[in-house]
Amino acid sequence: MLKLYYARPSAYARPVWLAILEKQLPVELIPVNLGGEQFEPEFLALNPFAHIPVLVDGDFRVFESRAILDYLDAQYPDRSLLPSDPKTLAIVRMVQSVAFSELLPSVIRLIVFDRDNSDWTTASQQVLKVLTFFESLLAEGPFFAGEQLTMAEIVAGTLVPVLPNLGISLRDYPNLKAWSSRLLARPSWQAIALTPDEWSDFKRRIKVLPKVWERRRREADRSNLQG
To answer: Residue 211 domain-assigned?
Structure first.
């Protein structure tokens, strides 16, 4: 059975969790407390870079979300999340990359900074640019690959639906709004949904996590030097 080391709110772990659910794979979910447990020796033995998620499949271990997603679809090809058509595959990979590289960092900044901060404004402008691009790709079909749910949904679909809770309306993006509603109605998306308390706690932690991580890294560095 697969073992997934994760945290429920993690923007990097949630796509992997979704992929496992959509592919209907048996999995043991092992929560990691990001308040510092990721720096403990037991977890560092799994990922020396102290990041979640980590997937363990028998004697094989893999971390980094994109690598895990590729592994899952190649190792378990039933209910594939990647199209075979080259152009459609390129679109899916493009959406996946833009979601991770452009949208996710901006979403984090929307959480970290207050709305009257210029950094929030800059982040919101970047988010709108991404939404405009995604909207244009969803002109036809229920999903980015037409009728097939793919990695594009698995990744972008963990980010776009939360934007209204961060002050970014989907009203001007009817294709994305309908797409988001379709995803949220799926059992897999409902399974990973955060409660209001979990969402509030996640936003609070995001605001302080950089300081926590920096402090724990300094402590780890001092321990290594002393050892």
So the answer is: no
SS3 of residue 8 by DSSP: coil
Chain segment 87-111, per-residue pLDDT in tens: 999 999 999 999 999 999 999 999 9
- Residue 34 and residue 7 in contact, taking contact as beta carbons nearer than 8 Å: yes
- The residue written with tokens 């959406």 in the block is 95
Classify residue 227 by burial, with Cβ atoms within 10 Å: 0-12, 13-18, 19+. Answer: exposed
Average pLDDT of the chain is 92
Q: Tell me how far the alpha carbon of residue 40 is from its chain's centroid.
A: 23
Question: Cα-flanking dihedrals φ and ψ of residue 214, to 5°?
Answer: -65, -40
- Which pLDDT does position 79 carry in this prediction? 96
Let me know whether 96 and 180 are in one domain. Answer: yes
Which of 52, 80, 108 is the last residue in one of the domains?
80
Q: Is residue 222 part of a domain?
A: no
Residues 91, 133: one domain?
yes
Residue 147 token pair: 């009728």
Last residue of a domain, one of 80, 105, 136: 80
Domain that holds residue 116: 86-189
DSSP H or E segment with residue 185: none
Comparing 31-40, 72-81, 196-205, the range with the smallest average pLDDT is 196-205
What's this model's pTM, rounded to 2 decimal places? 0.89
